[in-house]
Amino acid sequence: MRGTLLANRRGVQRFRQLAITAVKSSKIKLLLLCCIAFTVLVVGTRASDFMGGTNYSDSVDQFPLPEKGYAIVMNTWKRYDLLKQSISHYSSCTGLKSIHIVWSEPNPPSDSLSKFLNHVVESKTKGLKKIKLSFDINKEDSLNNRFKEISGLKTDAVFSIDDDVIFPCSSVEFAFKVWQSAPDAMVGFVPRAHWVDKSQGKKDYYTYGGWWSVWWTGTYSMVLSKAAFFNKKYLRLYTNEMPPSIKEFVTKNRNCEDIAMSFLVANATGAPPIWVKGTIHEIGSTGISSLGGHSEKRTGCLNRFVAEFGRMPLLPTTVKAVDSRIAWFW
Length: 330
Hints:
The chain is an alpha/beta fold. Helices cover 45% and strands 18% of the residues. The protein has helices spanning 2-50, 57-62, 80-90, 111-125, 169-181, 211-217, 233-241, 244-253, 257-269, 294-309; strands at residues 67-75, 96-103, 132-137, 155-162, 165-166, 187-188, 191-196, 206-209, 222-223, 227-231, 274-276, 281-282, 320-321.
């Protein structure tokens, strides 16, 4: 009898322990479920705000975002075959939104040229997108014209290019992506250098270095505007804030507008440009760089601009952007 009672008591105690354990376990599970539900609610609310759950349409309407993509600003001078070839090529580039031809000839572009170029653009895009082509006509023949502010330019990115220089669209698109990572910088394909020339016996005398100087040292401080991306704000700065004496010098000597732009950007950012590796195809036969004494003239420009700016803003760098997807060595 005692054994039976003892067994019953032990059974009751065990049942109580199991019941207590089950209740505690249920409370813990309930607490965990509440925590999970609260977390999901908070995350959902944050995600809704992040993804646009709040209506910001008024502020967006007041400050419209710039179009993604880039505008080509192409400098040309009485080389219509080269112009047609270049426009035909770049019209098929994915990120292109508009083309602005810098026209400084005494006579306006002919109707036949305008119709031909517009037809080329339409045929290359195949109606998939609308690319605006326009001539920015200037009364004065000056290399400064390539950096005049463009009214109504919808993209922040400007790809400045000469009419006799062609890069594959894949290289242009890669350079555009590099520029997007550093939108205040000048990003281009044609690097140049400068260095202090102590042989002249002057404290701050600078010498211009061409491609072979860059190749030999691996250092550069400029990328030429014959093939470079930069922010459209620099067109406004060049137009309105570049010292008039520098623009007069460029007009008179028909040289060094690209160095002047490099000075302006470096002075504004306090940073060097970015050189992008790309294969250049020069379809023109001659240019001012092929003339005798070119490097000496560019050296003169450097020192003239240093005197105007009151200092040397150009900064040397060894950084080179390479598309590792298509390069064996990078």
